[in-house]
Write a structure and sequence with these properties.
There is one protein chain. The chain is mostly beta strands and about 110 residues long. The chain is about 0% helix and about 55% strand. The strands form 2 sheets. Strands 2, 4, 5, 6, 9, 10 and 11 form a 7-stranded mixed β-sheet that branches. Strands 1-3-8-7 form a 4-stranded antiparallel β-sheet, with no helix packed on it. The protein starts with a strand and ends with a strand.
């Protein structure tokens, strides 16, 4: 059974930092491209950052220079380090793993107070 479990969300003041984690089970983790998406209230789910199985990364323009995605294949975990947080970053953040099909976590809430 495939599971993606996010953690690390919470309430933080603008300018602060959070580190999200997503622990995977039931998949051959190293073969998967991994990503973080987010969905703000009333908005569509959007890509925040992606890291491929080979380690290449790409970011949404809105988070470049502030967020960093990384993966630890030994721990079956993908991370999103979020610095200089803004109120616009408030959203539910979802972990995604893709190899032919998409797998999703349940999401973790990030709230940035101004």
């Amino acid at each position: 059974q495939v599971q993606l479990v996010e953690s690390g969300g919470g309430l933080v003041q603008a300018g602060g930092s959070l580190r999200l984690s997503c622990a995977a089970s039931g998949i051959t983790f190293s073969r998967y491209d991994l990503a973080w998406y987010r969905q703000a209230p009333g908005g569509q789910r959007e890509l925040v950052a992606r890291i491929t199985s080979s380690g290449s990364t790409n970011y949404a323009d809105s988070v470049k220079g502030r967020f960093t995605i990384s993966r630890d294949n030994a721990k079956n975990t993908v991370y999103l380090q979020m610095n200089s947080l803004k109120s616009d970053d408030t959203a539910v953040y979802y972990c995604n793993a893709k190899l032919f099909i998409d797998r999703w976590g349940q999401g973790t809430q990030v709230t940035v107070s101004s």
